[in-house]
Queue: 3 jobs
Job 1
Amino acid sequence: MTVVVDDGSMNQIVAERSTAGWVHAARGAAALGAAMGIGRFAFTPILPMMTAGAGLTAEAGATLATANYVGYLAGAVAATLSPRLARSPAVLRWSLVAVVVTLLVMPLSDNPIHWALARLVAGFASALVFVTAVNLMTDRLRNHSPHLAGWGFSGVGVGIAASGFLVLLLPEGVGWRGAWWTMAVLAAVLAGGAWSRHRHPGAVAVATDRSPSPRRKTGRWFAALLVCYTLEGVGYIVAGTFLVAAIEQSSPGWLGKSAWIVVGLAAAPSAALWAWLGKRVSHPDLLTAALALQAAGIALPAVAPGPVAALVGAILFGVTFIGVSTIALAAGAHLGVPRAVALLTAGYSVGQIVGPLLVAPLLHRGFHTVLLVGAGVVACAAATAVILRAGYPELEFD
C-alpha cells in the first residue's frame, strides 16, 4: 500500500520538527545558564563586591573558588559512576533547586566557612545539572541539525552575560548581599524555563564515537590531549575567577563588570561556531589556534591596562573557553579511547582545583600577575596541542 503525503503536510511536519528542536535547545540552554552561567560563574563579578563590603581577602576568595571546583569534580565523578544519575530528569530538577538554594544562602552569613560549604554544594549540583541536561538535550536533538546542540550550550554564555549585566545595574547601596539575592532570582527564572523540558520521558542517547581504526594505537595522542586539557582547566579557571578583579585593579569598576558581560556575549554563540569549524579543520589545528587566542586574551588586560585591552581580552577569552571544551571532547571521542570524555572531564576538573591553589601565593603581587600565570599555563596547553599534529588520525571531512 502506498501512502501519499501532500507537500503542505510535509512542510508542516518539517516546520513542527524544526520548532521542537529549537524549543529543546532553548530549555537546555536555560538549565545550563542557571547552573553554569549563574551557579558557577556569578561569583566572578560579585568577588570585588565581597572584597569591598564583606572583607573577603584574595586568599579567601581563592579558597571559595576551589571549594566550588572540588564540588564540581565530585558531581562529575558521581555522574560518571552512576549512569542512572546522569540520565535522570528528577536529578536535574532537584539539582537546579539546589543551585538556587546555594545562591540564596550566600548572603545569610558572614562566615567564610559557610560560604565555602555553599560553594561546594553549588559545584556538586551544577555538575549534575550539566551532565543530565546535556544528556537529555542530546537525546531530544538526536535527529535534528547538529548546530542546535551548540546553541543549547549558549546558555552558559547567556547566564554569564546576564549576571554581569545585573551586577552592573545594581545600585551602590545594594551591596554584595543584594547581588547574591539577585543571582538567586535570575537562576530561579532560568531553572523554571528548563523545568518543562523533562516532562516527556525518553531514552538517553549513547554517544557513538567516530573513531579511527581500532588496530591503530591512539594512546599517545590521547595522553597529549589529556595533558593539554588539564592545563587548560588550570589556566581558564584562573582567568574565569580573577579577570574582573584584575581589570578593576587598574580601571574603573564599571569596566571590569562590563568586561564580564562581554565574556558572556562572546561565549554564547561560540559552541555553535566551533562545532561548525570542527567539521572543516583538524582537531589539533583548531585546538592550537583556540588555546593561543585564549592565552592572548588572558594576558592582554595584564600587559596593557585600559578599556580597549580589557574588552578585546574579554572577547578572546569568551569566544574560546567553551570552544576549547567542544574541540577537546570531540577529539577524545574521535580517538576512541574507552571513557575518553569522562577522563578528559576529570582532568579538566582537577585543573580547575589546582588553578586557584597555584596562584594563591601570588595574589599579594596583584591580580595582573595572576592573569599572566594563567596565560602562561594556557600557552603551555597550546604547545602541547601542537604535539597532537604529528600523525594524528584525522577525521574524514564531508
Note: The chain has two domains: 20-198, 209-398.
Job 2
Amino acid sequence: MAYYRTAQFADIAEALCEHGEIEPVRMVFIEPEDRRSEYWFNPQYEQFLLQEIIPAVESHYGKTEQKGLWGASLGGVVSAWLAFRNPQLFQVVGTQSACLTLEPGGDDSYTAPEWLTQQYAGAERLPLRFYCETGQIEWLLAPNRRFAAMLQDKGYPHAYLERPSGHNWMTWRQGLAPGLRYLFPKARQGGKSV
C-alpha cells in the first residue's frame, strides 16, 4: 500500500487522466503481509492474484481490455515474473528498482544470479510492454541495466530510465507519471492506445 499512501500513485493517475494525458486506469493496491514470502516467486501469491483478486475486481467493476502489473524492488521482480508466467492476462509491466538478483529458493538478493532476466532471454518474446527505471546510486543499477538491454535485444517495446538517486520512495514517485504516460497513453484521434 506504500504506492497508494506514500507515493500517491492513485492521485497521480487521476490527475493525468483528468488532464487527458493517459487513458483511464483502474488500480488495485495489495497490502502484503510478508512481502519476502509473497513476492519471492510464490505460486500461492500468483493464485491469490489470479483466482481471488482479479475475479473479485472484475465481478464488482467489470472487465478491462488491458491489465498490468507495477512494483518497486521485490514488487518489481514479482510483477515481471507474474507477467512472464501469465502473458495471456497481462499486457504491461512497470518496474522500479526491480530486485532482479533473486532466484526461486534463493535467499541472497545481493549476489544471486539474475534468474528472471535469464528466463526472459531464453524464451520467445511475449506480448508485453515494459516501463523500467532504477536509481543510479543503488546496488540494483547493473541488474536493471542488463534487464533493459535484454528487453532491447529481444525486441520488447519498453522504456528504461535511470534517476540520479537511490532505492527509495522519492525516486519511485518521480517515475510514476512518466511510466503511466508510456504504458497507458491517451488514444490519438483515429487511433487506439497500445
Note: Residues 2-183 form a domain with the Rossmann fold fold (CATH 3.40.50.1820).
Job 3
Amino acid sequence: MTIEAIHVATIQVLLAGGVGRLTTTRVAARAGVSVGTMYQYYPHKQALLFALVQRQFDLIDTAMRDAAARLAGSDLGTVAHGVATAWLDAKMADMVASRAIYGIAAEFDLSEMMSQAAQRMTQVIDTLLANAPDARFADRSSAAFMLAALLGGSVRVVMEAEPSEENFARLRCELPRACHAYLVTASQGALA
C-alpha cells in the first residue's frame, strides 16, 4: 500500500509541477509518509521515477501479452484491430500516469528501458503475424517493428500535443484502420 501511495503521489506531483519541481520531500508529503520511508524504497529521485516508468511498461507489456494470447491464430484484420485496441486500452487505462511518463522521458535518458519495451512489443506482434493465416510478409520482423512504431508514435503524438477526448476517440476509430491498412499492404508487398 505504501509503494502504491508513493507512486500515486509521484504522478500527482509530476503533473502539478513537472520533473524539475519533483522532490522526494514533496512526494513523501503528498503520499503521507516520512522521507525516511521514501528512502527505504527509493534512495533518490531518479530511482523513484525509473520505478514508476518500469511499472507502467510492465502493465502495458502484460496487457499486450494477454491480447496476443487471445488473438493467436487470427487473421490480419482481427490482429490489427485487437492489437490497436489493446494498446489504446493499456495506454489509456491510467491517462494521468501515461502523460507523466512522457514528461519523465523528456527529462531523463530512458532509451534502454524504452528499447527493451519496444523489443518485447515487436516480438509479441511478430509472433502474432507468424501465425496469421492470411499473412504473406517478405520481411515479417520489419512489419512487426513498423506496426509497433505506428502504435507507439500515434499515441505519443496525441498524449504530448493534443490530449483531448476528441483526439482519443479519433485514435480509437482510426488507429485500428491504419494498422490493418499497413498490415494488408505489407503482406501484399510480399506477393508482388
Note: The CA atoms of residues 16 and 98 lie 15 Å apart.
